[in-house]
Design a protein that fits this description.
The complex is a heterotrimer. Chain A is α+β, with helices and mostly antiparallel strands. In chain A, about 30% of the residues lie in helices and about 35% in strands. Chain A contains two helices and three strands; from the N terminus they run E-H-E-H-E. Chain A has helices spanning about 20-25, 55-70; strands at about 1-10, 40-50, 75-85. Chain A has a three-stranded antiparallel beta sheet, covered by helices on one side. The longest helix of chain A is centred in the last third of the chain and has 16 residues, at about 55-70. The model of chain A has no long low-confidence stretch (mean pLDDT about 90). Helix content of chain B is about 35%, strand content about 25%. Chain B contains 26 helices and 28 strands. By secondary structure, chain C is an alpha/beta fold. Helix content of chain C is about 20%, strand content about 25%. The chains are: A alpha+beta, B alpha+beta, C alpha/beta. Chains B and C meet through helix 8 and helix 10 of B and helix 1 and strand 6 of C.
Chain lengths: ~80, ~750, ~230
């Protein structure tokens, strides 16, 4: 069965995030003064074909851990979506 | 093959941008109604962008022949002989409309397209230049555009390993709604290894190489580049294409490897009008026909219709013409580089472009009718009514400035003049290890490995001059580019040009275009630099606002001995000369715009004999090693020119120019055909003799040294102050957004 | 004997030819290595050059580290052979875990191509065998993601045991924000492993060896590399 996953990759907490800061700095001049703590990350979607739901999730996690995120600077989260028929 | 009602098809044609007459021409050509796919093909190929229908009758007046020209206009790019079997391929092209909608992707795909034009001749792309025009940076949108365009140019060029070595950036309110983004690519190859963009050889195979085909920019050429940008720009976003420089890098290496191995009979890039343009042009040039199996074309999206596959402008694709026996080797080479190579058709002998899908013909049209026999217009022309008043308003009649020193600082801080480090530090100018002189000088100098030679490259175009007198605008663009190249010691060889204008259906735009072409043609003849190709970009206007007539010239020059190359930087203990003569000319000057707040008066006159004499003198003096530095005197006049040489060498000067004219005319006037040179005192007599021999007027201005900028009795500034305003002007403007937060 | 210096070409490598040319200019024998190779072609030392391997679309160096040749590079490093990563090569070595830390987006968010100065912090590595501590040399940088980052412990460790090889500095050797082109932590421009045989640098020494093209601050780095390679010949 095929299963769809979302992988969210974000910079580890505490690491400088110049992209996030640039957005945050731009907001007040556009009229938003109540927004803070902007962090920029990556969103990756993928489909895994496996025998079981758990098996698919395991593969998605492996891909995220080995390739999609760099554990030195990034955290990741794998979110399971609906099964694809 | 006709399908559907006649009336429907005709109105469809109008929706695709064809006029009623053009539609009838299609019907006449085919002897029947076109079907949907055929109509889309004609609409794309007969668009202004692909067919040059409004400009062709004028472009013929440009000189195209010269002793060095190997390939002139009409191929993917021009080719010039550099001697010893080395060929230089170069071309400039605009990507302004896409850049106005999505600056990063628009500029990036513009770079990608021009690189493929050079690659398709079988040459390795070795240098990029860009000529950019934006509205004033005080406006948020213009900063957004410039940030995006510069990042896009860098993002692409840096990632494919082709150095961006020069160009220019200028600003004018007229370019606010419509920025002008042009990219020039230069390649080197062997003269006998050039690959024609021809579908020659009956039975040869058409191989599509590179990215898969999606619905990118369907109708792109007609949608974006062949009409004005209206309020619906945001809605045009789906036709924006996403650049993939990594694939382009692989295409470069794979195509050059296959060219080297002699596997390619022909090579053509897929640009505007996609597959249709590539097959019809290469067939028309070879006098052949082609048969394309659309079902073989690798698709990125499901259920694409034949007309979509035929006109898709998906990036990073090339079409190779290959002998059937060589197909396995071509496929192997592409596999090595991780590229898809798919046979999609073959060369036929009947002059027809035939596309098949699902076993049936879906289009069948004469190749020449698409590529060469499109409509041509000699559109009405008339000079604009406002012009006489504008010309009559001579800035030289205004009060002179109270403090010329402060005036110089204002000019140095003007974004047109100010240092462009903010821009060019975002470009890799070093990769490939050929850059002898990169961005920031008069011209870039690129060495040719294995020889003592180097090429010099410059882009130029003065929008104010073009606005006030398009004939002079065209002439000055050529003259200044030649002068820039000569300031490195190189001999100008040939140009490529990009002509950016408003709506050609307006008589005053067409008049300016006509004048510009004449001005360029005369200057090219006088300076011995034929036009080897380029492109025309019309419809650069929105509402009632058109861009300045903006001819951009990309000049190629040759240095016989790169060790004789010159830069603009002053060194202490040299004598400073002005070559050329200064007239009371402030019309269209930077001074007039920045200090007096007006763009008016007659631009500086251009005596082409004087220009040719100056260029000849610079080359000869450089060849004899007489000069310590040379710098083109143009935007901002003599004072800016001297200051730039001083900043480049971190070395001040003390000069006392002739007092025949009022100081502000001497210092800020922009008379043409002038250069500031410095020379070792021991060589001064030799220089004077050489100048006299070539009838180039010269005047000894003073000497270099110290840390101040001194014009006796007129201004006296610390060099550091000049540098400060010159370097900080653009970064400060670009920081406005952040400071506001 | 002439030391053989290998240069790996990944799809998307850009400064590979420049590195090969620099090796030749400096008196070494250049050995081109393909990313799909499983050995180093007899090279005594190996350079992972600059560029955008695999487009760097996912993350700089993220995919290149899985290339077949990387096993041979790892073996070579494990046996004490000299391995040098320049720019993208540095990013790949960090991704591969052969060097500590990572390279993140520049502070200014834009690509920066500029001549800078770097100061030698640790002599005796593959790139500083012929250098003295405090030596200052001009080299160009050109990258969009060159800001060195590492967690606090790693940083403390490499600062403590000579893991920092180069720092960005002024022409006279002072460090400070003005001289740091990308916001790199502690002005770090290059790091090495404990043994000093694996070194990564963001600046491009291969673009600073030919006097025709500008300053030649890359020469001492290449001299060091050739010496390190020769020590194994």
């Amino acid at each position: 069965m095929k299963q769809r996953f979302e992988v969210l990759v974000s910079l580890k907490e505490g690491l400088a995030d110049p992209q996030g800061k640039a957005i945050e700095d731009a907001l007040p001049s556009m009229g938003w003064t109540s927004v803070s703590e902007v962090r920029v990350g990556k969103h990756i979607e993928l489909t895994v074909d496996a025998d079981t739901e758990d098996g698919a999730l395991r593969v998605a996690n492996q891909v995220a851990e080995r390739l999609l995120a760099n554990p030195v600077i990034e955290d990741f989260r794998v979110i399971s979506q609906a099964e694809i028929t | 093959m006709a399908e559907g009602a006649v009336g429907t098809r005709a109105s469809e044609a109008t929706a695709l941008g064809l006029t009623e007459e053009e539609y009838h021409q299609v019907v006449e050509t085919l002897g029947r109604e076109p079907n949907r796919a055929e109509l889309a093909m004609y609409a794309a190929m007969w668009s202004e962008h692909c067919s040059y229908k409004s400009s062709k009758v004028h472009l013929r007046r440009l000189p195209a022949d010269g002793p060095h020209v190997l390939v002139g206009p009409g191929e993917d790019a021009g080719v010039v002989d550099l001697g010893d079997g080395i060929a230089c391929v170069f071309k400039i092209e605009s990507h302004s409309h896409p850049s106005a909608i999505e600056p990063y992707q628009g500029a990036a795909t513009g770079v990608g397209g021009i690189v493929r034009d050079v690659l398709s001749m079988g040459a390795r792309p070795i240098a990029l230049l860009n000529s950019l025009r934006f509205g004033p940076l005080e406006e948020e949108r213009n900063r957004w555009l410039m940030s995006g365009v510069v990042a896009g140019i860098g993002g692409y060029g840096n990632c494919i390993g082709v150095p961006t070595v020069g160009g220019e950036v200028k600003f004018a309110p007229a370019h606010g709604p419509n920025p002008t983004v042009t990219a020039m690519c230069v390649g080197l190859g062997s003269a006998d290894g050039l690959i024609p963009a021809r579908a020659a050889g009956l039975g040869n195979v058409l191989v599509l190489i590179g990215s898969r085909t999606g619905r990118d920019g369907i109708g792109g050429v007609s949608v974006l580049a062949s009409r004005t940008l209206g309020e619906a720009s945001a809605a045009a976003r789906p036709s924006v294409q996403i650049a993939d420089p990594f694939s382009e890098k692989l295409l470069i290496e794979a195509c050059l490897e296959m060219a080297e191995a002699g596997l390619l009979v022909g090579l053509q890039d897929l640009g505007g009008a996609g597959l249709t343009c590539a097959v019809s042009e290469s067939a028309a040039r070879a006098g052949t026909g082609v048969e394309v199996e659309l079902d073989q074309v690798p698709l990125r999206e499901p259920a694409m219709e034949p007309f979509e596959i035929l006109t898709s402008e998906s990036q990073e694709r090339m079409l190779a013409i290959v002998r059937p026996d060589d197909l396995p080797a071509v496929e192997a080479s592409c596999r090595t580089w991780g590229l898809q190579a798919t046979p999609v058709g073959r060369v036929t002998g009947d002059g027809t472009v035939r596309a098949r899908s699902d076993g049936a013909a879906v289009a069948e049209v004469p190749a020449r009718s698409l590529a060469e026999d499109g409509p041509q217009y000699d559109r009405p022309m008339s000079p604009p009514l406002w012009l006489d008043d504008l010309l009559a308003d001579d800035p030289a009649r205004a009060e002179p400035p109270v403090d010329p020193g402060q005036t110089l600082l204002r000019l140095l801080a003007s974004p047109n003049v100010a240092g462009k480090r903010w821009v060019y530090e975002q470009y890799d100018s070093l990769v490939q290890g050929r850059t002898l002189a990169g961005p920031g000088g008069d011209a870039a100098v690129i060495r040719i490995e294995g020889t003592a030679r180097a090429i010099a490259l410059s882009t130029d175009g003065n929008g104010r001059y073009g606005h006030l007198d398009p004939y002079l605008g065209g002439g000055h663009a050529v003259a200044e580019a030649a002068r820039n190249v000569a300031c490195t010691g190189a001999r100008p060889l040939a140009i490529t040009n990009c002509l950016n204008f408003g709506n050609p259906e307006r008589p005053e735009v067409m008049w300016a275009f006509h004048q510009t072409v004449d001005g360029m043609a005369d200057a090219c003849r006088a300076l011995g630099t034929p036009v080897t190709g380029g492109n025309v970009s019309f419809y650069n206007e929105s509402g009632d606002s058109a861009i300045y007539p903006t001819p951009i010239v990309g000049m190629l020059g040759l240095l016989d001995d790169e060790r004789r190359r010159m830069g603009m930087a002053f060194q202490p203990g040299r004598m400073v000369y002005l070559l050329g003569e200064t007239f009371p000319e402030l019309g269209g000057s930077e001074y007039a715009e920045v200090v007096l707040g007006r763009v008016s008066g007659r631009p500086p006159g251009l005596d082409l004999d004087r220009e040719a004499a100056l260029v000849g003198l610079l080359i000869e003096a450089a060849g004899e090693g007489l000069l310590a530095s040379a710098h083109d005197c143009s935007d901002g006049g003599l004072a800016v020119c001297l200051a730039e040489s001083a900043m480049a060498g971190d070395c001040g000067f003390r000069v006392a120019p002739s007092q025949d004219l009022a100081p502000h005319l001497t210092l800020f006037g922009e008379s043409a055909s002038r250069a500031v040179v410095s020379v070792d005192p021991g060589r001064a007599t030799a220089l004077e003799r050489l100048a006299a021999g070539r009838a180039v007027p010269f005047s000894r201005l003073g000497e270099t040294g110290g840390s101040r900028i001194v014009v006796e009795d007129v201004l006296d500034l610390p060099l550091a102050d000049a540098r400060d305003v010159y370097e900080s002007a653009i970064p400060n403007l670009m920081e406005i957004r952040r400071a506001a937060g | 004997m002439t030391p053989r210096i290998g240069v790996v070409t990944f799809p998307g490598s850009l400064d590979d030819r420049d590195a090969l040319r620099a090796v030749e200019l400096m008196g070494g024998r250049p050995v081109p290595i393909w990313h799909g190779d499983t050995d180093l072609g007899g090279a005594d030392a190996v350079i992972l050059p600059g560029g955008f391997a695999y487009g760097d679309y996912l993350r700089t160096g993220a995919i290149a580290r899985f290339a077949p040749v990387m096993d041979a590079v790892r073996d070579h490093a494990r046996r004490g052979g000299a391995v040098v990563g320049i720019c993208n090569g540095f990013q790949i070595l960090c991704e591969a875990g052969l060097l500590p830390g990572a390279l993140a987006r520049n502070r200014g968010l834009t690509f920066v191509c500029r001549w800078v100065h770097v100061r030698c912090e640790r002599p005796g590595t593959a790139l500083t065998a012929a250098a003295g501590a405090g030596d200052v040399t001009p080299v160009p940088v050109k990258h969009g993601e060159g800001r060195y980052v590492a967690d606090r412990d790693t940083l403390a460790r490499i600062e403590g045991d000579g893991g920092v090889v180069f720092r960005y500095c002024s022409p006279d050797g002072r460090t400070g924000e003005t001289w740091n082109p990308n916001g790199s932590t502690n002005d770090i421009a290059g790091v090495c492993n404990e043994a000093g045989n694996v070194v990564g640098v963001m600046p491009h020494p291969e673009h600073a060896v030919d006097p025709d093209l500008g300053p030649t601050g890359g020469r001492p780095l290449f001299e060091s590399l050739l010496a390190s390679a020769l020590a194994r010949v």
